[in-house]
């Protein structure tokens, strides 16, 4: 049975997907690739927007795209450090 | 004003130096981990940080008491006046430091860890007030609660290490440093309430070991958060 991802890992996966898609992805493919239920995805997405990790941009044709902010890139950069910290101090 | 000969005593300057190093390193840990906490909003990191904030507060109060004792003479533990207030606060902050540390390792077991975190203040305040009210016997009671907290923390650290060893092939032996630091914290507490001296060689060794262990933890934090 697959292991349940924890909150930090889900956030990392969502941000990584956006970054690996040239930092621009539509909400529907992001939902599909992130492998979350739509309710979970909405909750995480709201949290990411609130924390200023991602932002929504609308192009000239009115299509919505999601991109990472500097804070989002920072999270990706620091993710391994956060995990190491949690692991070493048994947090 | 203290008599000038007191200011010439090396023990006074050892106590001041020790206080500065311990408070500064605890605050370095607190502030260095600010960013990882801000990014992750991880509760374990929050409680870990608060634990070291309380360690810093306790070291500060502890130093005030020790330095005051050196300059103005021995203080009565039973004294309920202003002189007794630092002891009461030391017991509260010291208990909070260990309780937050334990909470940082077991918070996942609770549905609402923030609610539990508020109750920790109540537990620490109760321990401090009861210990304070019973005077000498109270300081023994306080010491015993700290030993119980320390043993709980030690069990959790070892359990966590074994769990992580199962997951990963190679694990660091850092948990030993972590355990020793808290052991030195307990000995420090006993030294303050029972031995009340830094003038002995044992006192100096305890101080040196405490500084060394806390610096090792700080280096680890700096390496992780750089």
Task: Identify the notable features of this structure and list them briefly.
A: 91 residues; mainly alpha; B: 226 residues; 83% helix; 0% strand
Characterize the overall form of chain A. Answer: globular
Tell me the overall shape of chain B. globular
What separation lies between the terminal Cα atoms of chain A? 25 Å
**Count the strands of chain A?**
2
Main sheet: strands, sense, barrel of chain B: none
Ranges of chain B with pLDDT <50 over ≥5 residues?
Answer: none
Question: So what's the oligomer here?
Answer: heterodimer
Layout of strands and helices, then pairs:
The complex is a heterodimer of chains A (91) and B (226).
Chain A: H1 7-20, H2 27-34, H3 38-50, E1 54-58, E2 64-68, H4 70-88
Helix pairs in contact in A: 1-4
Chain B: H1 4-7, H2 10-32, H3 34-40, H4 43-72, H5 85-106, H6 113-133, H7 135-167, H8 174-195, H9 201-225
Helix pairs in contact in B: 2-4, 2-9, 4-5, 5-6, 5-7, 6-7, 7-8, 8-9
Characterization of the model:
The complex is a heterodimer of chains A (91) and B (226). With 91 residues, chain A is mainly alpha-helical. In chain A, 59% of the residues lie in helices and 11% in strands. In chain A, strands 1-2 form a two-stranded antiparallel sheet. In chain A, strand 1 (54-58) and strand 2 (64-68) form a beta hairpin. The two termini of chain A are 25 Å apart. The mean pLDDT of chain A is 91. By secondary structure, chain B is mostly helical. Helix content of chain B is 83%, strand content 0%. Chain B contains nine helices and no strands. Chain B has helices spanning 4-7, 10-32, 34-40, 43-72, 85-106, 113-133, 135-167, 174-195, 201-225. In chain B, helix 2 runs antiparallel to helix 4. Chain A binds chain B through residues 8, 51, 71, 74-75, 78, 81-82, 84-91, and chain B through 33, 35-36, 39-42, 44-45, 47-48, 104-105, 156-157, 159-161, 164, 172, 174-175, 178, 220-221, 224-225.
């Amino acid at each position: 049975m697959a292991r349940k991802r924890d909150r930090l890992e889900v956030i990392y996966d969502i941000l990584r997907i956006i970054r690996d898609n040239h930092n621009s992805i539509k909400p529907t493919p992001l939902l599909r690739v992130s492998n979350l239920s739509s309710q979970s995805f909405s909750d995480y997405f709201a949290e990411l927007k609130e924390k200023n990790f991602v932002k929504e941009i609308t192009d000239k044709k009115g299509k919505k795209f999601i991109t990472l902010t500097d804070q989002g890139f920072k999270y990706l950069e620091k993710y391994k450090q956060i995990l190491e910290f949690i692991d070493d101090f048994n947090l | 004003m203290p008599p000038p000969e007191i200011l010439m005593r090396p023990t006074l300057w050892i106590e001041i130096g020790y206080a500065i190093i311990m408070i500064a390193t605890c605050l370095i840990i607190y502030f260095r981990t600010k960013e990882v906490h801000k990014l992750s909003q991880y509760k374990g990191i929050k409680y870990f940080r608060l634990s070291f904030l309380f360690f810093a507060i306790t070291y500060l109060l502890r130093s005030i008491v020790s330095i005051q004792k050196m300059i103005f003479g021995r203080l009565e533990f039973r004294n309920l006046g202003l002189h007794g207030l630092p002891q009461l606060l030391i017991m509260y902050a010291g208990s909070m430091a260990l309780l937050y540390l334990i909470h940082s390792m077991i918070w996942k077991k609770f549905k609402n860890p923030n609610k539990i975190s508020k109750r920790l203040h109540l537990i620490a305040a109760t321990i401090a007030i009861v210990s304070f009210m019973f005077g000498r016997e109270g300081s023994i009671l306080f010491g015993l609660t700290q030993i119980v907290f320390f043993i709980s923390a030690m069990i959790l650290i070892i359990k966590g290490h074994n769990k992580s060893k199962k997951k990963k092939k190679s694990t660091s032996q850092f948990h030993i440093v972590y355990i020793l630091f808290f052991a030195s914290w307990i000995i420090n507490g006993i030294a303050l309430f029972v031995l009340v001296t830094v003038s002995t060689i044992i006192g100096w060794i305890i101080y040196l070991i405490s500084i060394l262990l806390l610096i090792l933890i700080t280096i680890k934090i700096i390496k992780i958060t750089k």
